[in-house]
Write a structure and sequence with these properties.
The complex is a heterotrimer of chains A (624), B (492) and C (101). Chain A contains 28 helices and four strands. Chain A has helices spanning 6-21, 23-26, 30-55, 82-105, 112-131, 135-153, 160-191, 196-206, 209-226, 235-238, 244-253, 258-265, 267-271, 274-297, 301-321, 325-352, 365-368, 370-384, 390-405, 409-435, 452-467, 478-483, 498-523, 534-540, 545-554, 558-566, 577-594, 599-621, and strands at 61-69, 74-80, 472-473, 476-477. Chain C has three helices and no strands. The chains are: A mainly alpha (624), B mainly alpha (492), C mainly alpha (101).
């Protein structure tokens, strides 16, 4: 059965090929259905072996496909273990629902088929990433998801902001990718292979703490790019310029979790580097808090969800940092469901409100969009951490793991609780402003419920958001047992005593309810509170972090940039070079003056080069 | 003639005969271009076939040294060597020459009466290039180098009436002669220090190193350094690279692919033969210097390529960076040779294909080709647009293209040799390099309503580009086919 | 006479040639300077050959080849310079900087 797992990748890849090449001839809505059916079948195919792993009848294994670059231990092979199975289920499952949803959402778009081609490509790339059995293939998947994400963010490239957002995502992610790439080089230099099996079994012997720290910090730099952590999170809010299903699939449920997945996969290496663990946990906690604060001040419904995503990713990263890998992955799974649900719900609202995204102009949508309202209620309660919805269980587990470490880690735990309070606050704000109260619609807007292709995925995701949490409760750690084979090589902390766990969970619940109540009474009235100036204004601008980066990194190269702007295509990928290459370009201009076109100066250059080279050879060879 | 092997010199022989036939036919039977094509094509293909035969011979243990001054028992001063290294050079040079000739065919068609000259010079140049890879004798390496260089000086200035073509030829000639003189001086000093001009055989440079304890290495070191300078110039490694962009830009577009690809292959083959074959025991002396040159080449090539507005200059500077990546393979000594040949068997095809497209877009006799001329190429000629994108991806080192595998192998070679810092530099420049390659791709796929004149490539350039792209893609997806082969492409 | 004088002569000539290549503006003189460098190498080669008493006389052989190649190079070089002169009415290498950057 597992021999056929390559079909999982082949199916969406076929869809991508057909939709991109023949899309125009297939047309709407067939292209969309094709994409949906292919991803859906991939999910169906993955179900059986996953159940096998779940029931214990199947074992984790590596399925060899073909040899790719054997010298570096990079074969095309699939690593099928609980971790990859779980991610596969999420990617194909949520992916299929979002394909279905997009059929309704993208209705009438002139590049309808192309959109599904890119979505299919994304699913295939993501599967390559999660199913990889070595770092080389994983890196390829990593780059491919980046590429498809870039294509999808700037899908409406005629909108300048969308094109700019695509570029920004691309540039910022290059920085992270560089870290990843250098980490891979060090890994290869140390192990002589990229193969997971060899690396993870020999790591404790081969790596010194220093090498492990270097590798893991560089890997983490890669993760901060993909999973939008401080300092590289700035691309994610802008990425909301893409179509809403894209935000739901890529920038909430799947791609942004790739960094967390990669770190969970490399858990063995992270175990060897305690300093990295602290760094990661602190950055995760800080991201969770900062993004939550910014989310409180946002007015755009999608921006709130974007910052919320960053904040939740911060939780996951914090979980990895404290060594609670399965808790981090568990939160990843529950978050995939409820955040996709929230995004799709928001998309449904935006769709029904004729592309209005400002929450100040919504309100009272409860009656106009009943299905969206009910499902969003589930999502809201889940992310706020209300018992017994899934978010409650997964968030609680990370916080419990942090608490358990004791000592200074309690500060981090407090930060997590504070972020949880804020999460409940801003989500209630979003919920109340959108669905409750009196309508504040712009004139002529007539909200309507979305078609069934959009509401069905909402309903399915809502069910998942309710029940998924019970897989892993302090009393019944089914999820953790399921993942155990993937983390077999690392030591496990003893679970908390049940009474203490219950007290902590209760405390978190009280905090969440407090946040909801506070926000409820603040916003659920006829006169909305005035939120201008000071804190609110600065928060709305994301505390000017973008400007800061602009001043520190971009400004110095601005003059060159202006010169370059004349010869540069404003919407293509070439803008990529703007950020990173600015300094390099300045250097290039300096070198240009050396390239004078004068034969004699070239000859002089050769002569000087020759003299220097002779002296160097003499010095090295002991000729003096 | 007990120690003669015609197979060992078959490559040179076939190309030489081809060149002579072309010239004779031109004199005797008039100036029909239709005749050159089969002769030139057949010569290159036959030469590549000879390479395959050489390869089989070597695999069966039939390689060795030939044309020595003494009898079989005491091989002294061999002139030709048949090993995996030279056989690989035959195959690669033959196929690259064939493809490049196809890419140059538009130019051959344009130059009319002088077409025979062009074809004959190309054939002679490639014969010279292969000599550099197939001989252990420094004199013969120099002769091969000059044969190729002099031919290329002429090709660079082939469009006599164009001032840029003239300038290109003169620059190439003056700087090239200077580099040759330095190289030659290096040979003379090496001769003085070791008493030998040959790498293998009795009383050879290798014998010298294994038998003598060098107490006062001054002259030897200077000789080695000067030879390094000469070859670094040929492969356009920084800081000896300045000629390359000027010469590539000014030379007629149709001829650049031939020149650039050929010189790169032979230059590295000669570097491998001399420094890995002959001076391997001195690797601690030349290794760090090659590493610094590699780093300089990668940094300067990438940096300069970012600010170019001319397509040919951009490819020239990217070639400087690629020389840097290729130099990484030398650092690993004999172990790096297979990585070098993987790179040399794929990258030149990308150069040839790219220049065939430039020649199609800007015209085969053009002496400038702004990147802007590529705007909207994906609509004006969809196949050329897509294939150019493939070459750009290939050169940039995008996964699933041959350039990626080549780079990875080169990085591994450098890592094995302990140059981790160099691998970091190489990684960084690769990432930065994506910017200018993707900029070209973006230009190709943009421009909605600017120039809408359709471009209709000729059959020959279509062939050249498709062959190049096939190599780039196939060895990117299934590299182990080639990796298995080049594993045996080692010097004797 | 020892080898040293010959080597010094060769080195001096080589350096003069290199100096000429860098400083001369006239393309013909640059060409002449390159020839000077090659001639210097020939002196070195022949003297090393005599000094080493090489049975194969490899140095002398190489010197002969260098003479032939230098002649070929001059042929091409003069042709290129003439071509330049015909197009621009000058053989000043400094005037040749159409392409740069």
């Amino acid at each position: 059965m597992t021999d056929l797992l390559w079909i999982l990748i082949a199916l969406p890849l076929t869809g991508a090929f057909i939709n991109i090449v023949f899309g125009k001839r297939i047309g709407e809505p067939l292209a969309g259905w094709l994409g949906f059916v292919l991803v859906g079948s991939a999910w169906a195919i993955a179900v059986v072996p996953t159940l096998g792993l779940l029931t214990g009848s199947g074992t984790p294994e590596t399925i060899y496909l073909f040899s790719w670059i054997p010298v570096v231990g990079a074969d095309a092979a699939i690593l099928w273990d609980p971790l990859s199975a779980l991610l596969t289920m999420i990617v194909t499952g949520v992916g299929a629902l979002i394909h279905l949803y997009s059929i309704g959402y993208m209705h009438g778009d002139e590049r309808f088929a192309r959109f599904f081609g890119y979505l299919n490509l994304f699913i295939a790339s993501m599967l390559i990433l999660v199913l990889a059995s070595n770092y080389a293939v994983m890196f390829i998947g990593w780059e491919l998801v980046g590429l498809s994400s870039y294509l999808l963010i700037s899908f409406w490239f005629k909108k300048p902001s969308a094109a700019a957002a695509g570029k920004k995502a691309f540039i910022v992610n290059r920085i992270g990718d560089w870290g990843f790439l250098v980490a891979l080089m060090i890994i290869f230099a140390s192990f002589g292979t990229f193969d997971f099996g060899v690396i993870f079994t020999t790591a404790p012997v081969v790596l010194t703490t220093g090498a492990a720290t270097a590798i893991t910090l560089l890997l983490f730099l890669g993760a901060t790019g993909k999973s939008a952590q401080i300092p590289l999170y700035i691309w994610l809010p802008d990425a909301m310029e893409g179509p809403t299903p894209v935000s739901a699939l890529i920038h909430a449920a799947t791609m942004v979790t790739a960094g967390v997945f990669m770190m969970a996969r490399s858990a063995v290496l992270f175990e060897l580097a305690p300093i990295s663990g602290v760094t990661i946990a602190v950055i995760g906690g800080a991201t969770a808090l900062l993004a939550a604060v910014i989310a409180v001040t946002q007015m755009d419904i999608k921006k709130v969800l974007a910052y919320s995503t960053i904040s939740q990713l911060g939780y996951m990263v914090m979980g990895v940092g404290v060594g609670a890998y399965s808790a981090g992955v568990f939160h990843l799974s529950t978050h995939a469901f409820f955040k996709a649900l929230l995004f799709l719900g928001a998309g449904s609202v935006i769709h029904g409100m004729a592309d209005e995204q400002d929450m100040r102009k919504m309100g009272g949508l409860r009656k106009a969009m009943p299905v969206t309202f009910v499902t969003m209620t589930v999502g809201w309660l889940a992310i706020s951490g209300i018992f017994p919805f899934s978010g409650f269980w997964s968030k609680d587990e990370i916080l419990a793991a942090t608490f358990q470490r004791g000592g200074p880690w309690l500060i981090l735990w407090a930060v997590g609780i504070l972020a949880a309070l804020l999460t409940a606050f801003y989500m209630t704000r979003l919920y109340v402003l959108t669905f409750l109260g009196k309508p504040r619609w712009a004139e002529g807007t007539e909200p309507h419920e979305s078609p069934w292709t959009m509401t069905l995925p909402l309903a399915v995701l809502a069910v998942a958001a309710v029940i998924f949490g019970v897989f892993n409760t302090p009393a019944r750690l089914a999820f953790e047992h399921f993942l155990e084979p993937s983390f077999a090589l690392i030591s496990h902390a003893e679970p908390l005593d049940l009474p203490l766990a219950a007290v902590l969970a209760l405390f978190a619940l009280v905090v969440a309810i407090g946040g909801i109540a506070w926000s409820w009474f603040r916003y659920n009235r006829d006169e909305l509170p005035v939120e201008e100036g000071g804190f609110w204004q600065r928060g709305l601008n994301g505390f000017a972090v973008d400007d800061l980066y602009g001043r520190v990194i971009v400004e110095p190269g601005k003059k060159v940039c202006e010169w370059f702007a004349d010869s540069v295509d404003p919407k293509g990928i070439d803008g990529v070079s703007h950020g990173i290459a600015q300094g390099v370009r300045t250097a290039g201009d300096g070198l240009k003056t050396l390239q004078s076109g004068q034969v004699r100066s070239y000859a002089g250059g050769i002569a000087i080069g020759a003299v220097v080279l002779i002296l160097a050879v003499l010095a090295l060879g002991g000729g003096f | 003639m007990g120690n003669a092997s015609y197979l060992a010199v078959a490559f040179e022989g076939i190309l030489l005969i081809g060149a002579l036939v072309v010239l004779l036919v031109a004199v005797v039977a008039g100036r029909s271009r239709a005749v050159w094509a089969p002769i030139a094509g057949a010569s290159f293909l036959l030469a590549a076939l000879a390479g395959v035969l050489q390869w089989i011979e070597v695999e069966n243990g039939g390689g060795g040294m030939f044309f020595s001054a003494q009898n079989l028992q005491v091989i002294k001063s061999p002139m030709v060597v048949l090993d995996g290294f030279s056989a690989m050079a035959s195959i690669v040079l033959g196929l690259v020459g064939f493809t490049a000739m196809l890419g140059s065919w538009d130019l051959v068609a344009k130059v009319g009466k002088r077409s025979a000259e062009f074809v004959a010079l190309s054939l002679l140049a490639f014969a010279g290039l292969h000599m550099m890879a197939a001989t252990p004798n420094l004199v013969v390496i120099f002769i091969g180098l000059e044969t190729a260089s002099i031919s290329f000086y002429v090709l660079a200035g082939f469009i006599r009436a164009d001032v840029k073509s003239d300038e290109s030829a003169l620059k190439y000639f003056l700087l090239g002669s200077l580099a040759s003189a330095l190289f030659l001086y290096g040979i003379a000093l090496t001769f003085a220090a070791t008493g030998s001009l040959t790498i293998y055989g009795v009383n050879s440079i290798r014998d010298f190193f294994s038998e003598t304890v060098v107490s006062d290495p001054g002259i030897l070191l200077v000789g080695m350094a000067l030879m390094l300078v000469g070859l670094m110039f040929k492969i356009s490694a920084a800081p000896f690279h300045q000629w390359a962009p000027d010469v590539y830009q000014g030379a007629p577009s149709g001829a650049v692919g031939l020149m650039a690809a050929g010189v790169k292959i032979a230059g590295f083959a000669a570097l491998g033969r001399i420094f890995v074959g002959g001076f391997i025991s001195q690797i601690d002396t030349w290794g760090p210097i090659v590493a610094v040159i590699a780093a300089l080449s990668m940094v300067i090539g990438t940096t300069m390529a970012l600010v170019q507005t001319d397509m040919k200059r951009l490819v020239a500077y990217s070639g400087v960076a690629h020389s840097g990546y290729l130099l990484l393979t030398l650092l690993a000594g004999v172990e790096g040779m297979s990585a070098m040949w993987f790179y040399l068997a794929t990258y030149p095809f990308m150069i040839v294909g790219t220049f065939a497209i430039i020649s199609t877009v800007s015209g085969p006799t053009s002496t400038s080709s702004p990147i802007e001329a590529m705007r909207g190429l994906s609509r004006r000629s969809p196949e050329m647009g897509w294939l150019l994108a493939i070459f750009m991806f290939g050169m940039s080192g995008m996964p699933f293209f041959a350039g990626f595998v080549g780079k990875i192998l080169a990085f591994i070679a450098a890592g094995d040799a302990g140059y981790i810092w160099l691998v970091v530099v190489a990684t960084l420049t690769t990432v930065i390099g994506f910017a200018f390659y993707l900029r070209v791709v973006a230009t190709v796929f943009s421009g909605e309503d600017d120039d809408t004149t359709m471009i209709d490539p000729t059959l020959s350039s279509r062939f050249a580009v498709v062959i190049g792209a096939t190599v780039t893609v196939v060895f990117g997806i299934v590299p182990w086919i080639l990796i298995d082969v080049v594993r045996d492409a080692l010097p004797l | 006479m020892t080898i040293i004088q010959f080597v010094l002569l060769g080195t001096a000539l080589f350096s003069m040639g290199l100096y000429g290549v860098i400083t001369r503006k006239n393309a013909v003189l640059v060409l002449a300077s390159v020839e000077l460098m090659l001639a210097a190498v020939n002196i070195n080669l022949v003297s090393f050959d005599a000094y080493l008493a090489d049975q194969l006389h490899a140095g002398q052989m190489l010197a002969l080849f260098v003479i032939a190649l230098a002649a070929a190079e001059v042929g091409i070089g003069i042709a290129i310079v003439l071509m330049i002169y015909r197009n621009r009415q000058t053989a000043d290498v400094d005037a040749l900087s159409e392409m740069k950057g």
